[in-house]
Predict the 3D structure of the following.
Amino acid sequence: MSTDPNRWVAGHIATLPKSGIRDFFELVAKMKGQDVISLGVGEPDFVTPWHIREAAIYALEHGKTYYTSNLGMPELRKAISAYVEQHFGVSYRPEDQVIVTVGVSEALDLAFRAFCNPGDKVMFHQPCYVSYQPSITLVHGQAIAVPTYAKDNFALTAEALRAAWQPGAKMLMLNLPCNPTGGTCTREQLQKIADFCREKDLLVLSDEIYSELTFEGTHTSIASFPGLAERTIFLHGFSKAFAMTGWRIGYACGPAVLIDAMMKVHQYAMMCASIIAQEGALEALKNGRDQVLKMREQYHRRRDLIVRRFNEIGLKCHSPRGSFYAFPDVTPSGLSEKEFAVGLLEKEKVAVVPGTAFGENGRGHVRACFATAYDQMIVACDRMERFVQGARSGR
Amino acid sequence: MSVSMNPVLKLLIDGGSLTTGQMAQVAGLTEAEVDQHLAQLKKDKIFLGWRPVLDLSREAAAAAAVRGVIEVKVTPERGGGFNRFAERIARFDEVESCYLMSGGYDLLVFVRGASLQKVAGFVSEKLSSVEGVLSTSTHFMLRCYKEQGFLLDGDDSQGTRLTVAP
């Protein structure tokens, strides 16, 4: 009889590849204490605003240590509903169309588990956040990657969607603005995507976690188009806009029947999101707007700086309209994205993430996070310039 | 804050410790342009000067570390109100800041001196003897927790942020 513990690991987990970002993390971890400047993070460099932290402390001091309703605290759901209506133009009933989750990641997992039968086809645009494709695999769905391109500033186009579509496709996963590319869609592009979803009867999962960090124009949610709210699960959270990544708090809004289906999974798997995080989230929605705008202004200026420097260095980089990621093309250095990232780390102690960690369509690019202090970013860009010059001259 | 605000002024208000070279990079200007902006802000009396923010409880910076806050009541002058008093008091070297206040007193004066005696001497000999000063109430600062936006125990730790994350 075999004694290999692997025999107990489920087949689809055994074959599930580890995140490409994990390998790179290990590489950077080995260089601890070597003055590494990291542009490799996926979270704000701001600590959660004090008033939010203080509200959570206050809640603890007053004995808020219990489970909450499975759907989340009614007061928080009310606040979420009002916030979504005000900023996204879509109205959801707090009683049965909003569920509070442990970050958007849990909301996404709930949605896939609630809506995806084995073999169902799920479309998603790529490059994309690392968890989308594995999440589909975990529920035995079939992932259909739709490429986005640098020439379109990584916006998803209805044409690419149509070209990738396969009969029987059931869902479309969106993340606009997008991690890692910062790509987003104009209202016109989104209108075409909305029409396509109606035509093909697709259920839309729309992760809009970076929406507050839209620098030019206003963010448009696909759920706000006529007839789309009925077929969209709107996913959002507090991690990016309110600098609350470690709190793990997010939410999903959608038609009551669909939210109820997600709730079934949530109540058995998670019960409820942490009450402390929910109290913090409530304070964020009540009084956090000024801080969000302040942080956005900082990211905006940092974006302008990093994009300008990348283009000066000779790495072609579009100006991301949202998020805090730049996604430059590193092929002018004569290196692949992996060679570039590893070389830059080893020679110049700057960490960026190879684009292929976010899918095959990230080839030739790296992700650089500009949620980093100015002085660090300036030094990092200078080091990158030296590295690119060295690479070009064959050093 | 208006988007059209002078970009150098914006960076000054943010309170970062950027060199003019770094400011130039951040604002997308040349260093000469940053210097021009700074000169213009000085000319307009918006930008008054540079001063470091120090933790004076540290031994190395302990000189001139006694600080007092003085509430001053004065008799306002016909035609001039409080301005003449405030400007006169503000001119003393010992005075770091001076504000006209609403409420139970008129002027709030922040004073720094090399010793407790020096500050006390300034209050009794200089400040209270200014004609029109009705009363003073002096409070000595015992410990500072936050100075001009800087927490003295250091900003909240960001050392736990991962170097690479999805």
